[in-house]
């Protein structure tokens, strides 16, 4: 079978479209091609490692919380929870920038323009190094102030400062590793990022109890050990990934004359930031909506809050397939946009929606069948919170299938550079519809108004996203200005009147 039909199994493939090289030279290598081969199979094979990486990240957080809670107590667990909230907000600020760079790289790879892909990588890497160093320095110095602003409980502050400072030291490696992984996915390789995520998580989990309690030659660092294990895992995975890419002479590595691409392109940097900010703000909107609902839930007492907290833990895993499929759809669609293959965009979206319905639907069904058994893993067998959590799942879980379809549609439209409409849709559906529903209908519905606000928000977001996908102008959007001459067809099924790839830029 052609290598192009198995894009995620190799970090690059030999390009069959390039001129033949002299016999004394190896054939020119190109990143994996997501513009050819069976769409459904290619998308699924590409998405599975992304899903695996997401699962590893969530399990890493859960396992670390277990170690900290059992070895150091509740105050330490509270400290890590507060510090991790800060980390989430920091990662959210650069998440969108990484996604914008990934789409640019994917479009360039689809156009088989390696120089443009390297130019994007060099400029974006400069930004990530600079902003990560700034975060690390300022965060380390002002960690106590940040925790004070968060209202961290007094008994947890000293522990949280030690842990957060260690986490801030890990931020540069964390950001750069995440950036390289997303770029590789944009280039058609999702397997390599999964393997190095496994390395980072494995080291973190292995070293966590060792560095907390001290073992053999390792000192007992207490809660700082939990942060140190994250630092070691991220640095080790980053260094190993860079070494692998250069040893294998990956086609997107910057070496020799290509080092000039590290000189920032102002135009590219403006584009990455302008397109990245709306995608990063989507995380802020989601977090803001969750905080609003949490403030309403807390008013119903600790049992209801505990039930919601446990249910939300389960929802994290239920939503993972949709997030992985959305990321895969975005990379695959972006490559096809760059390759001028608009005839494949609609089929990619349909395949993504189908996989989401099947995979997310299966997890939702399992949650309905086995939720009481799973809930007893988190709550005492006789706890009233188990029944409350079960009722919450009954009202909420099915809506994640709908929201999953929305995320897949978002994955397609952002592949062309349409990043603001998804943000607007989330503001309307989550901050307005969901919050107003939960707040305004508590009189007649009581606490059920909060749980039913999830389906209300999901239905709204799906209707708006589907309407924009069908009638919106996302096919006319672009990451960078194109040469004048036309636009892609409104249907997305015919051949466009001009190339949608990224042009050369200095």
Automatic annotation (TrEMBL):
The chain crosses the membrane at residues 85-109, 121-143, 163-182, 194-215, 221-246, 272-294, 314-333, 345-370, 396-416, 423-443, 449-469. Residues 481-506 are annotated as: Disordered. It is found in: Cell inner membrane. Keywords: Cell membrane, Membrane, Transmembrane, Transmembrane helix, Transport. InterPro entries: MATE_fam, MdtK-like, Membrane_Transporter-Flippase. CDD domains: MATE_yoeA_like. Pfam families: MatE. It is a multi-pass membrane protein. Residues 496-506 have a biased composition (Basic and acidic residues). The keyword Cell membrane applies. It comes from the Bacteria. Its main location: membrane. NCBIfam families: matE. This is MATE family efflux transporter. The lineage of its organism: Bacteria, Pseudomonadati, Pseudomonadota, Alphaproteobacteria, Hyphomicrobiales.
